[in-house]
TrEMBL record:
Protein name as annotated: EpsG-like putative glucosyltransferase
Keywords on record: Membrane, Transferase, Transmembrane, Transmembrane helix
Keyword Metal-binding: no
One Pfam family recorded for the sequence: EpsG
InterPro entries: EpsG-like (IPR049458)
Coiled coil: none
């Protein structure tokens, strides 16, 4: 890709991000989500004002959805594993399931959509995943955040939206995980488990949130945290055992580069920063809030995983199930900082850090393992040959 075209596409991503963030800034939390149910809704307006605001919310949310869905659904060969997914879909279509590592839900969806289309319509499959992934992310932020605009800004700046161009099964599961938190906080465990089991038919890693989210709801004592720290130390001297467990869960990883781990410095720094801010205002923002304590322990758990389990190849995926809560936790902390100047300072600091992260992400967006640049669309480009086409 030439530098000029790369710059134009990068500008396209920046414009998409800026426009959707501006739209998100006009959205106000309505008193019908989990925040209202838990007594956290910061608004108390008249019915007439709410009616106007509700209409504006609907228009902005719909516009955001259409923009994000359109960009995602129209892409072609964008994402480091796009061609690999097309290959998997072809193998499913011809019944070669022995060579397909994907779960039953994904396989069934591909089969149905291909049957409805009458041909191997992989574009429709990617569009369906884009539709539901974006839908559940937006619903989760709207229903659970203290500030939809702030949460959406972090969602875009931390690269979560552009990450959905890769590993579509996983990011659909991640969207379900974020959405499922409302059931965890309301202790509607039946709904939570059913949603997780449904999502696991598309990406089985989602099952890990059943124990992880349960542990994050517990009122941990200091001695219990000390015992957990002792357990986490086993990751340093029982690495072979844990790698064998990963191979058992993901047999397709055996003897591949996927078994190579690595330290995720960006995630470690981000979790550390969030936890430091939470500890600074622990009494004001975390101590007496069941919801914020849950977010706190999720981020503490993510930090432990990134530090102690860097040798595991799937640690980033597991960690994301925990640190995705940052897009809800940071607005919740900031909204409870009692001093106005301190609130403004930390809001500005978070925004600047997020913008810096987004800039670094865009500069690396064309690298192997990310490959969201160059952006291509089926309207102007052709699909590259997949492995089956070359045999």
């Amino acid at each position: 890709m030439d530098a000029g075209r790369g710059s134009r596409i990068m500008i396209l991503y920046i414009v998409i991000t800026a426009v959707t963030i501006l739209l998100a800034g006009a959205v106000r939390i309505m008193p019908n989500g989990i925040n209202h149910c838990l007594g956290n809704s910061p608004y108390n307006l008249s019915n007439k004002k709410w009616s106007r605001q509700q209409a504006l919310n609907g228009l902005c949310l719909f516009s955001i959805f259409i923009i994000l869905f359109g960009v995602s659904a129209c892409r072609l060969n964008v994402g480091n594993d796009y061609a690999k997914y097309v290959e998997f879909m072809h193998l499913i279509a011809v019944g070669a399931y022995d060579y397909v590592p994907t779960e039953a839900g994904f396989n069934a969806l591909v089969t149905v959509l291909y049957a409805v289309s009458g041909y191997e319509n992989f574009l429709l499959v990617f569009a369906v995943f884009a539709f539901f992934t974006i839908l559940f992310f937006l619903k989760a932020m709207y229903e659970q955040s203290d500030s939809f605009g702030f949460s959406f800004f972090l969602f875009m700046a931390f690269g979560f939206y552009f990450h959905t161009f890769n590993t579509v099964r996983y990011y659909f599961a991640l969207a379900l995980a974020l959405y499922s938190i409302k059931y965890v906080l309301k202790k509607e465990w039946g709904k939570f488990i059913l949603l997780v089991l449904l999502g696991a038919t598309f990406h089985k890693s989602l099952l890990v949130i059943i124990p992880l989210y349960f542990l994050a709801t517990l009122p941990w004592k200091k001695w219990q945290l000390a015992l957990m720290a002792v357990f986490c130390s086993t990751f340093f001297f029982l690495q072979d055992f844990y790698l064998k467990a990963v191979v058992f869960l993901y047999p397709s990883y055996e003897d591949t580069e996927y078994l190579e781990g690595g330290v995720s410095w960006f995630n470690i720094l981000r979790c550390t920063g969030v936890l430091v801010l939470a500890l600074l205002y622990y009494k004001d923002a975390v101590k007496d809030s069941k919801r914020n304590r849950f977010y706190f322990y999720c981020n503490l758990g993510a930090l432990v995983l990134y530090v102690c389990c860097s040798f595991l190849p799937i640690i980033t995926r597991i960690g994301y199930y925990l640190n995705i809560t940052q897009i809800l936790f940071l607005p919740a902390i900031v909204s409870r900082i009692p001093d106005k100047r301190q609130k403004q300072f930390f809001t500005a600091a978070i925004v600047l850090a997020a913008v810096g992260y987004f800039a670094i992400y865009l500069m690396r967006a064309g690298n192997d393992g990310i490959r969201v640049l160059p952006y291509q669309t089926f309207m102007f480009h052709d699909m590259v040959p997949i492995l089956s086409d070359m045999n």
